[in-house]
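Title: Comparing notes on inverse folding

I've been comparing how different people in this forum approach sequence design from structure. To keep things fair, I'm posting one structure and asking everyone to reply with a full sequence. Here's the target:
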């Protein structure tokens, strides 16, 4: 089951149930199936604190994915900073929703076992992101 949670109070209600079907398609296409995936939308400070506490990183990020998957049963907690998504969308001259959906895809790819710690892996993830964004016509 995919659930959406909000650690921010000013999230527009009309966008609170988007993109679930597409994530299911992505998982199926990659050979996985849905366990429990929680998307938690938060602000910069909330995600910064998690980044420091659990990963010992002292910087802001747009997304953190905590993977609890077992084999092909994909589960995890995905924390997304709406502040970072907004800033990045402006920086890259992209629509906010496009950037948000890209990051949602990116995080699920991590839960599926994809990594972006080196140049080759990063290239593979970018290609997958583009494929799914194009498939879902964003």
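Reply #1:
Here's my take.
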């Amino acid at each position: 089951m995919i659930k959406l949670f909000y650690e921010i109070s000013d999230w527009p209600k009309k966008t609170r149930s988007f993109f679930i079907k597409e994530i299911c398609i992505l998982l199926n296409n990659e050979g996985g199936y849905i366990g429990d995936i929680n998307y938690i939308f938060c602000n910069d400070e909330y995600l910064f604190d998690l980044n420091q506490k659990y990963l010992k990183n002292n910087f802001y990020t747009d997304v953190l994915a905590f993977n609890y998957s077992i084999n092909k049963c994909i589960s995890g907690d995905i924390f997304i900073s709406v502040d970072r998504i907004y800033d990045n969308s402006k920086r890259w001259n992209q629509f906010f929703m496009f950037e948000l959906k890209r990051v949602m895809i990116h995080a699920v790819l991590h839960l599926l076992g994809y990594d972006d710690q080196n140049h080759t892996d990063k290239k593979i993830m970018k290609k997958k992101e583009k494929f799914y964004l194009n498939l879902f016509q964003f």
